[in-house]
Amino acid sequence: MAGLQISMLRTPSSTMKHGILTRRQSAYPLCFLVGRESHPYSGLFSCQHNSIPAGILPRGTAVYCHKSEFKIDHFGFLEDGTFKQRYLVNNEHWDQKGGPILFYTGNEGDITWFCNNTGFMWDVAEELGAMLVFAEHRYYGESLPFGQDSYSDAKHLNYLTSEQALADFSVLIRELKRTVLGAQKSPVIAIGGSYGGMLSAWLRMKYPNVVVGALAASAPIWQFPDMVPCGDFYKIVTQDFARSGLNCDVNIRRSWKAIDNITATDDGLQWLSGEFSLCSPLKKTDLDGFKAWLQETWVNLAMVDYPYEANFLQPLPRWPIQVVCKHLGFDPSVVSDYQLLGGISEAARVYYNYTGNCPCLNTSSTATGNLGFIGWYYQACTEMVMPLCTDGIQDMFEPQDWNFQAFSDECHSLFGVRPRADWADTVYGGLDIASHSNIIFSNGGLDPWSSGGVTRNISDSVVAIVIPDGAHHLDLRYNNEYDPHTVLSARVLEVKYFKLWITQARKLQIPG
C-alpha cells in the first residue's frame, strides 16, 4: 500500500508504518510448475470434498486434500460453531505399521504454496517411512471459520490466534491417529518454517503428548519486545549486501538522499518514474511508499538469497544479491544522484523482472499473493508484536525508531484492538525454554529473521543448527545440486535427530 512507512515489524513480503504490517501482493500469480525442484505435484489444490486426489506427483502418486470439522473456539463455550480446516496428505512411502508422521504446521497463507516450497519433507519421506501432512492455518487459504465474513470485523477475527491454531493442529493429529488405520502408534514430528516454524516449536512446547519433536526452521521466536535488539534484523540485511559486492550497501544507503534530491522538482519526479518504469507515475505524496517499496525489496532479496534459481517470492537468479550488486558498484565519492538511481532501478529489476516479462513495476506489489496479508495485519496487532528498527549507521536504511504507542494506536484505528506486547513472553516462555525437549532450531546466516531465532544450543535436546550461507529456511527446500555443503550437512543432522526421537518414542511407547 503506497504511502506507508517501512518497517518496524515484518514477515515475508511486508512493510509497515509504526509497526503495522502492510503486506504487498504480487500482480502476477505464482507459477505452479511440474518438477521436483519447484513443485511436487501437478495443478492447484481445490478441496470441495473429503479424500479427493488434489494433485499428482510426476511419478504418479496422489496428494490427497481433506477438510475436517474443528471448533472455532477451543478455549471457551459461548461460541460453539465449527469450521472446515484443509489439510493435504501423501502416504506413498508411509510404513502403515506405525511409521512416523511428518506434520507441517501451516503458516499465514495458502497451504498449497507451503507444500510447494517444503521439498525437504518429500526428500526424506522414503528414508523415514513417513506419512506427510500439511495442515492449513485457520483464517488462511480455504480454512475460513466464518466464510466470507471471517475478516469483516474484530468480532469475527477474534479467533485468529496462534493458540487456537496450535489447538487445531493438536486436534487434527489426534483425529488422524484415531481414524487412520496403522497410525495409532505413529510418532509425529512437527515441521515448519518462519511463522510456521514458530508454531512447530510451540506445538512441541504446548502439546508434548501429541508431537515427539519439532524442526523449527527460520523461526524468530525471540523477535519480541525486550528479547533481542530491534535493529539486528536490518544489520543482517545490510551485511548480506556488503558481502555480495563492493560498495553495494554503501550505495543503497546513499540512495535515500538521492531520491530526496531528485524528487525535489517535478521534472525529477517524472524522471524517477520513467527510470523505474513504474506502472503509475509518482506523486510527491507517494515518496514514502516508494522508499518503503525499495526497502522491502532489499529485505526480500536477503530472505531469498538462494544459491540456485528459485521462485519463492519472485522468479530470481542464483545468488540474486550478487546479481543486484553488479549494478551498484559505483565509486560513492564520484557517482551522481542520477547515475546512482539508474543503478538502483536496474537492481530492482533483478527482483521484479528477472524473466523479462514485466512491462512495468508496481510499487504496491513485492511478493507472491499466496500469503494472507489481512490476517497477518490482525495477528501483528494482537500477539505477534515483533519490534524492528533502523539507525542508518549500522544498517543501510533511513533511521526509524520502534514506537509501540504509535503502533498500538494504528492497530486500534484499523481493527479496534490493541496489541499485547508481552503476550508471547507470557504464553510461550520467551527466552526461558530450557525446560523443553526435542526441538531443533535451524537458522541461516543470510536470513534477517535469524536475528530473533535461537542460534545456540539451549540443552542436549533443544539444539540450534546454524547454516552460515543459508537464507530463509533453505534447509526446508528440496535438495539441489547447487546447495552449499552446510545445508546438506544440516539436513543430515536433522534427519539424525528425527530418527532418535522416533526411536525414543517407540521405546517409551509414547502415544504422540
Automatic annotation (TrEMBL):
Belongs to the peptidase S28 family. It is an enzyme of class 3 (hydrolase). This is Lysosomal Pro-X carboxypeptidase. GO terms for cellular component: lysosome. The lineage of its organism: Eukaryota, Metazoa, Chordata, Craniata, Vertebrata. Homodimer. GO terms for molecular function: dipeptidyl-peptidase activity; serine-type carboxypeptidase activity. Cleaves C-terminal amino acids linked to proline in peptides such as angiotensin II, III and des-Arg9-bradykinin. This cleavage occurs at acidic pH, but enzymatic activity is retained with some substrates at neutral pH. It catalyses: Cleavage of a -Pro-|-Xaa bond to release a C-terminal amino acid. Pfam families: Peptidase_S28. It is found in: Lysosome. PANTHER family: LYSOSOMAL PRO-X CARBOXYPEPTIDASE, PROTEASE S28 PRO-X CARBOXYPEPTIDASE-RELATED. One of its GO terms (biological process) is regulation of blood vessel endothelial cell migration. Its main location: other. Keywords: Carboxypeptidase, Disulfide bond, Glycoprotein, Hydrolase, Lysosome, Protease, Signal, Zymogen. It comes from Salmo trutta. Its EC number is 3.4.16.2. Gene3D superfamilies: alpha/beta hydrolase, Serine carboxypeptidase S28, SKS domain. InterPro entries: AB_hydrolase_fold, Peptidase_S28, Ser_carbopepase_S28_SKS.
